[in-house]
Amino acid sequence: MNIMLATVTERTREIGIRKAIGARKRDILFQFLVESAVLSLVGGAIGNLVGWLISLGMGQVQFGTTSIQPTVDADAVILAVGFSLAVGLFFGIYPALRAANLAPVEALRYE
Questions:
Q1: DSSP states along 8-60
Q2: Which helix H or strand E contains 2, and what residues bound it?
Q3: Quick check: 78 pLDDT over 90?
Q4: CB proximity list for 41: less than 8 A, separation 6 or greater
Q5: What is the rounded distance in angstroms from the CA atom of residue 81 to the CA atom of residue 45?
Q6: 78 conformational bin, left if phi > 0, alpha if psi -120 to 50, beta if neither
């Protein structure tokens, strides 16, 4: 949510220009929700990749005569990425609404 709030603040002037030339509230909302979803999906994918690499590394460790054979189920990957997307969308709604509700004149004045 902090990243998206910072993005809205940094791009206030751009939002004002888009609204001044005719962008609807729904267009601005959609833009920031898609951005939030993409950020969370990429974060979830990177997290899954790192977890998978760690599990491969742990599979190489041997404890005496016993070794660990980790498995990564597709269900767990789908659940993790889906949860990441849900969290990203949930915490992206407020910044997206804030951006969509900016008045064009006030947004253009912002510096």
A1: HHHTHHHHHHHHHTT--HHHHHHHHHHHHHHHHHHHHHHHHHHHHHHHHHHHH
A2: helix 2-10
A3: yes
A4: 81, 84, 85, 88
A5: 7
A6: alpha
Whether the predicted pLDDT of 48 surpasses 90: yes
- CA count, 13 A, side-chain hemisphere, 5: 4
Average confidence (pLDDT) over 10-17: 87
For the stretch 22-37, pLDDT in tens is: 989 999 899 989 999 9
Distance CA 58, CA 81 (A): 22
CA–CA separation, 74 and 46 (whole Å):
15
Looking at residue 59, its amino acid is G
